[in-house]
Specification:
Helix content: 40-55%
Largest sheet: 7 strands, mixed
Order of helices and strands: HHHHEEHEEHHEEE
Number of domains: 3
Structural class: alpha/beta
Length: about 240
C-alpha cells in the first residue's frame, strides 16, 4: 500500500503543479475578477480539475502494483499522463480562445468582449488600418468604448463589439456612459429580489441607491454584475453581484 500511496502522491503533485501553472497564468493575465465570472469559465476548470487532479492520480493509485513489471507500470502511467495532457491542452485552448480582451461600453450596457467574439475579418481590417485599440495575441483586458459608426445605414445591423476598428478610448465615451447610468431600481436584467439585494449591498458599502450611478456589466455568466460609478466624476467604484 505504501508503494501505491507514494505513486499517487507523486502523480498528484505533478498534476497540481502543471494545472496551477496553466490556470495561474490565465487567471493573473486575463481572468481576474470579474472576468472569471463573466466568461462563465468554471465548467472548463471543473473538468480540468476532475481529470487532472482526481481521475489521473486515482488511476495511478489503482494500477500502481509493486509486483507489476516496471516497464508495464511505466506504460500504464504514460497512458494516464497522455490522457491528462490531452485534457489539459484542450481545456487550456478553450480558456485561451475565450479569454477576456475588452470591457466595452456599447450603446446601453457594459459588456465583456472575449477573443472569439471578434470577427476575424474585422480584426484583419483593424490590423490593416493600424487601429490603435486592435487586439494582439498577447493583449491584456482593456476598457474601451465601442460606439455605433456615424455612417450606419438605417436598416443595417451592426454589432460594434465585433469591430475593433470602431473602438475608441474609454475616456471618449464618458459622456455617452453618463446618459446610460440609472438608479439601481431602473436597471434592466434584475428581478425585484435581485434589486433589493443589490441595494442592501450598495448601502453597506456606502454607495447611493437613489442616484443615476449604475449600469449592468454583462457576459456569459448570469445574472450580470452591477457596475457602480461616481455620478459626478464617473470614476468606477465597485462591481456588485445579485447572488
Amino acid at each position: 500500500m505504501r508503494f501505491r500511496l507514494k505513486a499517487f502522491g507523486l502523480h498528484l503533485l505533478g498534476s497540481t503543479t502543471a494545472l496551477t501553472l496553466v490556470l495561474g497564468t490565465l487567471y493573473l493575465g486575463w481572468y481576474r475578477w470579474p472576468g472569471w465570472y463573466l466568461c462563465d469559465a468554471k465548467y472548463v476548470v471543473f473538468v480540468l480539475m476532475g481529470v487532472d487532479l482526481a481521475l489521473g492520480p486515482l488511476m495511478t493509485l489503482i494500477i500502481a502494483n509493486p509486483r507489476k513489471p516496471r516497464r508495464e507500470l511505466a506504460r500504464d502511467v504514460s497512458i494516464i499522463v497522455a490522457v491528462q495532457l490531452f485534457a489539459l491542452g484542450y481545456g487550456s485552448e478553450q480558456l485561451w480562445t475565450g479569454r477576456p480582451l475588452y470591457y466595452a461600453f456599447s450603446e446601453t450596457v457594459l459588456q465583456i468582449v472575449q477573443a472569439y467574439d471578434l470577427n476575424p475579418g474585422e480584426v484583419a481590417l483593424a490590423e490593416k488600418l493600424n487601429s490603435p485599440l486592435r487586439p494582439h495575441w498577447n493583449s491584456l483586458p482593456r476598457w474601451i468604448w465601442a460606439p455605433m459608426p456615424p455612417d450606419q445605414a438605417p436598416n443595417e445591423k451592426i454589432d460594434p463589439i465585433e469591430m475593433p476598428r470602431l473602438y475608441q478610448p474609454w475616456q471618449a465615451g464618458l459622456s455617452a456612459l453618463r446618459a446610460q447610468l440609472k438608479p439601481v431600481d431602473n436597471v434592466a436584467y434584475y428581478t425585484r429580489r435581485d434589486k433589493k439585494r443589490l441595494k442592501e449591498r450598495m448601502q453597506a458599502d456606502g454607495l447611493a441607491i437613489d442616484q443615476a450611478n449604475s449600469i449592468p456589466l454583462v457576459g456569459r455568466g448570469f445574472p450580470p454584475l452591477l457596475a457602480v460609478f461616481d455620478p459626478n466624476t464617473l470614476q468606477f467604484k465597485e462591481y456588485l453581484s445579485s447572488r
